[in-house]
Amino acid sequence: MASILRQGLNRITGADEAPQPPAFTLSDMASQGDAYVHTVRTEATKVVQKAKAEADRIRKKAEADGQAAAKASMAKLLDERMGAELATLRPALQSVVSEIEAARGEWHAHWRQSAIGLAVAIAEKIVRRELRDDPTISQTWLAEALELAAGASDITVRVAPVDLESLRSHAEALAASMSGIGDARFVADESIEPGGCRVETRHGSIDQQLKTQIDRLFEELS
């Protein structure tokens, strides 16, 4: 009787029935699907971003390597071209340097000649002025010429007409004090510069004109 009652109670309470799994609705399945899709998309986005970053890194490295290679190639090309250009220009440059050196030498010589010419011209101007004011200069030149002609016979002294009398009297005084000078013949010559003289002998002439002395000085300095 008790067992019968227990069985009846179990049927009423469901104590002998096995547990049933929970039931899922369509909305639950849709939510789970959305979550899974979101997760997949997120992971896919990360993969794509990582791939893009890696691709960008590879591209930049390739560009850097390419630029370095291009720069190296360009530098080598420039070196080769510069070497070729220098090889072509070297003879021309050497020629230009030689021409500059020659021109500098010519300029130096020209400058020196010009400086000497200027100095001589200044000296001539000063002496001419002194010659007008100091007659002893002409007398000194005549004495030097007669000393060089001493011992020669047939001496002719050519002077400017304005100096004939003054230099003749001075020459006579010199002849009296100097040995080896005989009678000298004085000639007034229009071609002789005032203040100067030219002493002529059988062996040659001694020109003591200012112009002649200036030319001689210029040649010696040149």
From TrEMBL:
Belongs to the FliH family. Needed for flagellar regrowth and assembly. PANTHER family: FLAGELLAR ASSEMBLY PROTEIN FLIH (PTHR34982:SF1), YOP PROTEINS TRANSLOCATION PROTEIN L (PTHR34982). One of its GO terms (cellular component) is cytosol. GO terms for biological process: bacterial-type flagellum organization; protein transport. Keywords: Bacterial flagellum biogenesis, Bacterial flagellum protein export, Cell projection, Cilium, Flagellum, Protein transport, Transport. Residues 92-217 form the Flagellar assembly protein FliH/Type III secretion system HrpE domain. It comes from Botrimarina mediterranea. The keyword Protein transport applies. This is Flagellar assembly protein FliH.
